[in-house]
Amino acid sequence: MAESLMARDAGPARRVAVVLFNLGGPDRPSAVRPFLFNLFADPAIIQVPALVRYPLALMISWLRQASAKANYARMGGASPLLPETEAQAGALQALLATQAPSCRVKTFIAMRYWRPFTAAAAREVAEFEPDEVVLLPLYPQYSTTTTASSLKAWRAAYRGSGRVRAICCYPTQKGLVEAHAQRILGAFEAAGRPEKLRLLFSAHGLPEKVIEAGDPYQSQVEATAAAVVQCLGGEWDWQVCYQSRVGPLKWIGPSTAEAIGQAAREGLGVIVTPIAFVSEHIETLVELDHDYAVLAEQEGCRPYVRVPALGLHEAFIGGLADLVVGCLNQPVGVSPGAPHQCEACYGQCPGRVVEIVR
Ligand SMILES: C=CC1=C(C)c2cc3[nH]c(cc4nc(cc5[nH]c(cc1n2)c(C)c5CCC(=O)O)C(CCC(=O)O)=C4C)c(C)c3C=C
Ligand SMILES: [Fe+2]
Ligand SMILES: [Fe+2]
């Protein structure tokens, strides 16, 4: 892929901006409430008219701040998501410098609910004067609540140069799947290859009504898990489950807590791997490492093994680089790919690349 990219580049270096989308997290205790407000004020998260949503967001962020602050306090008062994402951005930029030497590739970070916000990233990218912009969500599975929300924020903010394309989703990308499998095998070995173990793929949950409205997230999470199991080979007892429920609505299940209880009742321990998060953050470091570890102990679910998030795994960063190079080489809309219901793909996912028309 890198070869054809280079072959097309006979002139001056093509300037390529690669923009990593992520959720963002508070960088200090006083940022927790405004971060929560930004999240709940997003119509992708609470689908009611703005007149109702803003007061609701004010109220929820006010009520939730104490428990959220206590959880962030367990991580030193701040989310590690930005430093983790910065490290991934640096590794990806370094790899792309070798894979696409005739391009000048620079990575940027656009967070949805805390700094660096999408608008600031869009200004920085515009100053870079790119020929090409590749939007790369650090959400392998597409959701209206994450990828679509970030794409919308980008469209509203970017006024710079270049052809803008987005990688919509990559739930079964080879590097992603291999990295997950290697992380799982590493944790399994480190735990002494325990027997009587269930592999739990734990993903962030969503309200059921979001899935019923056509969001492909759940089916893509299941596709990732199935691909990882196939890559692992051998006989694995495995299950997909969903964590981090918020609010009164019914969320998709089974919940990670239910899955741990079920495993305990069957006399099994669990090895839990985050499948929709590619970095460590509050939902891995607090929920998985603390809350569910305590629950497993109480339920007699032993051992409880936690697989680290992908972070800087070589195969994962390599997979991201392949996606970017593939995107740059690809004429939009002609490559084959399994059609699915991505809003950003207009019902089709042509090679999972979509051109952003401004
Ligand atoms: C796959 C990724 C994510 C989906 C889907 C998602 C949907 C979603 N989230 C909330 C509410 C909250 N999420 C919070 C934190 C948070 N969420 C994600 C990812 C997804 N969310 C990440 C990476 C993070 C961590 C940020 C960090 O600081 O490290 C929070 C804040 C924490 C808390 O108070 O529990 C809330 C609230 C909803 C309602 C939702 C879908 C409707
Ligand atoms: Fe897609
Ligand atoms: Fe979330």
From TrEMBL:
<feature type="binding site">
    <location>
        <position position="204"/>
    </location>
    <ligand>
        <name>Fe(2+)</name>
    </ligand>
</feature>
<dbReference type="InterPro" id="IPR001015">
    <property type="entry name" value="Ferrochelatase"/>
</dbReference>
<keyword id="KW-0350">Heme biosynthesis</keyword>
<dbReference type="InterPro" id="IPR033644">
    <property type="entry name" value="Ferrochelatase_C"/>
</dbReference>
<keyword id="KW-0479">Metal-binding</keyword>
<dbReference type="InterPro" id="IPR019772">
    <property type="entry name" value="Ferrochelatase_AS"/>
</dbReference>
<comment type="function">
    <text>Catalyzes the ferrous insertion into protoporphyrin IX.</text>
</comment>
<comment type="similarity">
    <text>Belongs to the ferrochelatase family.</text>
</comment>
<keyword id="KW-0963">Cytoplasm</keyword>
<feature type="binding site">
    <location>
        <position position="283"/>
    </location>
    <ligand>
        <name>Fe(2+)</name>
    </ligand>
</feature>
<dbReference type="GO" id="GO:0004325">
    <property type="term" value="F:ferrochelatase activity"/>
</dbReference>
<protein>
    <recommendedName>
        <fullName>Ferrochelatase</fullName>
        <ecNumber>4.98.1.1</ecNumber>
    </recommendedName>
</protein>
<dbReference type="GO" id="GO:0046872">
    <property type="term" value="F:metal ion binding"/>
</dbReference>
<dbReference type="InterPro" id="IPR033659">
    <property type="entry name" value="Ferrochelatase_N"/>
</dbReference>
<keyword id="KW-0627">Porphyrin biosynthesis</keyword>
<dbReference type="GO" id="GO:0005737">
    <property type="term" value="C:cytoplasm"/>
</dbReference>
<keyword id="KW-0456">Lyase</keyword>
<keyword id="KW-0408">Iron</keyword>
<dbReference type="Pfam" id="PF00762">
    <property type="entry name" value="Ferrochelatase"/>
</dbReference>
<comment type="pathway">
    <text>Porphyrin-containing compound metabolism; protoheme biosynthesis; protoheme from protoporphyrin-IX: step 1/1.</text>
</comment>
<dbReference type="GO" id="GO:0006783">
    <property type="term" value="P:heme biosynthetic process"/>
</dbReference>
